Amino acid sequence: MQDLAFEKLFSAQSYAQSYLSALRVKTGASNPHDVARVAIVSWYYCIYFSSQASRQLPRNQCPRNCQTFGRRCATRSPAVGAATRPRRRTWAAASPSPYYLCPSQWSRDAVMKWVQALNFEDRVVVGSMVLTLAGVGVGALRAEPRAFGLTALLVMSLLLMSSWLTHSLRLSWLLLVWADRRPGRAVGRLGACDVPGAHWFTPITSAFSCWRRRHTCRWAGR
Amino acid sequence: MIVVQFGYLALRLAERWPAGRVLAGLTLLGLSLPPWYEEFAAPARAWYYPARGWMLSHTPVWIILTYGGCIFSIAVLALEGYQPRAWGRAVVSGMLAGAAFMFFGVCGYAWLGQG
To answer: Using CA atoms, how far apart are residues A21 and A164, in angstroms rounded to an integer?
Structure first.
């Protein structure tokens, strides 16, 4: 056997054992997702070097690189077509993400990471927006105008309570900006009619409300 | 409510993004999200807009543009006006927000609402 091939045999064998050992260690990791990509690479190289070492002995040849070795595996191996070519150039191989083998897992983890990054105030505000859309959507589906007022009251209660509970300066400041005729108007919408005088809490915003109301029509009987 | 919701989003996003991107993103969100309130009002039999000028389903286009302008002004006022415990600035910002709502409403109606 040539010296180069002999050297390659032992180096491949030691690499294979090294990667096998790394794989054994990774099975004890608390979160398998953190080491998934490294484990896959280790698994690949473990198989690659094991196969390379096993092919040195009968043929007394040393493939110079992965591509040559892969080409030989693909053309001369008894299991032709059963194995993936080494270092295959695909989007998956080029992706730095450890989750590229499972996009659904990736998206779920991304959403979870995003949700975990939200603090309590963020969740309240995002929740209030979802509640608003859901409330008016239900009102539209059931042809029930009072759903608008009920939704507004629920969202207002949610924002006021969370501001009170969290002592959030941002929410308190914004609630003061918003504190105009809205509470009275929301109560009014429970009956789909505005409370008389509720518009005059702040004259300017009421002007906009009156302006917009001039261009809307009420349903008959309301 | 949209003052609190979108003002908070503006303040929170400004921690990560530059102000221009926050304003652009929130204005686009304002053009797409709050008009659903008006859109759902007609099937809920709460109120409706008579078909005059450009309409997108049940909602006039000038109302959609007005919402975009309102959200833009809310974001600007939140970014420029917010200081912790500066309650006087909050009152002034509220009045300026009302004036901006009126301004965008009148401009939108004058431009597209008369049909």
So the answer is: 56
Distance from CA of B71 to the nearest CA of A (A): 13
Closest to A112 in 3D by CA, of A31, A199, A13, A25: A31
Residues of B in contact with A122 (CB under 8 A): 12
CB B9 within 8 A of CB B26: yes
Q: How many CB pairs under 8 A join A and B?
A: 143
- B96, amino acid identity: L
pLDDT digits (tens, 9 = 90+) for A91-142: 444 444 444 455 566 677 777 777 777 888 888 899 999 999 999 999 999 8
Q: How many CB atoms lie within 10 A of CB A141?
A: 12
Determine phi and psi for B32, rounding to 5 degrees.
-105, -30
Q: Is the pTM of the predicted complex or chain greater than 0.95?
A: no
Q: What is the DSSP letter of A30?
A: S
DSSP of A145-159: THHHHHHHHHHHHHH
CB atoms within 10 A of CB A81: 7
CA distance A147 to chain B (A): 8
**Alpha carbon distance A155, A130 (integer Å):** 10
Tokens 């509640």 sit on residue: A131
Residue A190 has pLDDT above 70, yes or no: no
- B7 with A122: Cβ contact below 8 A: no
**Set of chain A residues whose Cβ sits within 8 Å of the Cβ of B59:** none
pLDDT at B26: 93
Chain B residues within 8 A of A216 when measuring between CB atoms: 47-49
**CA B110 to CA B101: how far, in whole Å?**
14
Contacts of B15 in chain A (CB under 8 A): none
Identify whether the C-beta of residue A155 lies closer than 8 Å to the C-beta of residue A132. Answer: yes
Nearest chain B CA: its distance from A45 CA (Å): 40
User: Which ipTM value was assigned to this complex?
Assistant: 0.88
Q: Do B44 and A139 touch (CB under 8 A)?
A: yes
**3-state DSSP percent of chain B in helix, strand and coil, to 5:** 70, 5, 25
For chain B, the domain total comes to 1
